[in-house]
Amino acid sequence: MLLLVMAILMPYEGAWAQTKPTRGNGSVDNPYEISTAAELAWFRDYVNKESQFASAMLTDDIDLSEFCHAADAATNTEELSWDPIGNGKMYCGTFDGNGKTIRNLYINSTFMFEGFFGYAKNGCIKNITFDNAKVKNTNKFGTGILTGGFEGTIENIKILANCSVEGTENTGGIAGGGAGYISNCENRAMVNGTNNVGGIVGYGEGSLQNSANYGDISGVAQVGNLIGFAAAVNLNNVLGVGNVTATDQKGGLLVGESNNPWSTASGILAYNSNAKLTIKGTEQTGEAVKAIGEGSLTSAFRVKAFSAEQLKSGLVAFILQGNASESAKWGQKLNTDDYPLLGSTNKVYSDRPMIMKCSGELEGTGKYSNTKPAQEGTFTMQHGNSIIHHESVDVTCTVDGTIEYWECDVCNETYSDERLTQRVSDIIKEAATGHNYDENDKCTKCQKEIQFVKLGNNNITIEKVFGSRTKISGYNLYKFTAPEEGALLVTADSHGEDTYGALWDSRTDRYLIKKVVVMVKTSKSPTM
């Protein structure tokens, strides 16, 4: 009996056993130092139940097989799914993997935002490799191996080829969806979902730079090597290698869909022209093979296809190196690696200079090696010979105030210096304010009066419209007196821009006798 009692009182060292780390206090400057799975499980519960701002750093590789695993009838083992860090509470701390590896993450869930982290916000997650991670989720709100959702910074994350992700909407190899800054990340896992499926992130906005996807990506729609659906993103120096399959529509060898005019390209956006792009069961060929399934990015010349032979030669690694930030390392062991690799110590050298024109042409390709030649070649990006100088413009009621800038006449990229070294994407320093009409229908700032439109034909110019379809601010106010008979026809030049609505009704009854049909024609059909 004594032995039985002792056995009951002894602590169980199984899946639920947790240990508080002995070093650190959870602050950013003094994070908890985690060396075991038991300490990691403790940290997970501490974040979810007490402090979502706690920070941690791994000091050893972690094997999670004791804390999450599939069912195994042979050993009478029940399934145990990992409960994410940041489940119920958003994780807002800094988690530094310190270059260590997390093995055997297992998730089989029906809840929103599933991954090693559930939802991470306003923090930083970095320096982790995932080995043999298996993540499956049937909820549509975000699935990824690292995190289901994020708002913040993700750096230096590597997903190995023996991992896999299965989700529905917003599914990614690293993150399901979110907004923020992703850099130096790579995915080699197979990723499968429905809508918004990407090798790095399913739905993304913000910045993605110096990252690569090597795994095959499949879904229903909005499927891409890097991002499934890109909403206002900057893609900078990235590589897409895997095959992409969309069983319905919108698949691309880099991005499934990018429909925001503010989405931009920087550096080089390289993809494998020998990868298979399959849409609705048909492998695409010729011009049907697209880097961006639907939509576009500014600076489209930076999006470039390379054959398998070119990828293996060292050419692409050399270009990626030339455009990389100081914190990013691209390399390739020639005659061994089929593609450029992130984090590789095998730098690629060229024996002659290389120029990439903003028209998309490459000049001066030489021989590549991992041995530094006596005369080392460099990589440069070359713009057109005619540079357009724009003076700064002061803001008015109808004109945006802009900075002084220079514009390439070939690719139309804008820069803050005449040597075209400091690129700027937003030249507007102050948006036009719109008129401010007083009780006498005169603008208090520019003295312009509201104009009358009369019976018959009226030709007007739309100065500027801003706002949304449901709320448009007034640059173009016109007053009219409704005729007893006949039509008031207005033809408006909108400079090729979309406009919404017809005319603004007058602000007072003295201009509106009765409702009439007012017809408006623009250079683009308005939504009535």
Describe the structure concisely.
This protein is mostly beta strands and 528 residues long. Helices cover 7% and strands 39% of the residues. The longest helix is centred in the first third of the chain and has 13 residues, at 37-49.
Give me some keywords for this one.
4 helices, six-stranded parallel β-barrel, eleven-stranded mixed beta sheet, 45 strands, 528 residues, disordered N terminus, globular, disordered C terminus, 39% strand, mainly beta
Describe the structure.
- The chain is mostly beta strands and 528 residues long.
- Strand 30 and strand 31 form a beta hairpin.
Helix content: under 10%
Radius of gyration: 29 Å
Structural class by helix and strand composition? mainly beta
End-to-end separation in angstroms reads 86 Å
Helices, by number, come to 4
Arithmetic mean pLDDT: 84
The largest sheet, given as strand count, sense and whether it forms a barrel, is: 11 strands, mixed
By DSSP, the count of extended strands is 45
Shape descriptor: globular
pLDDT < 50 stretches: 1-15, 465-475, 498-528
Q: Hey, roughly how much beta strand do the residues contain?
A: 35-45%
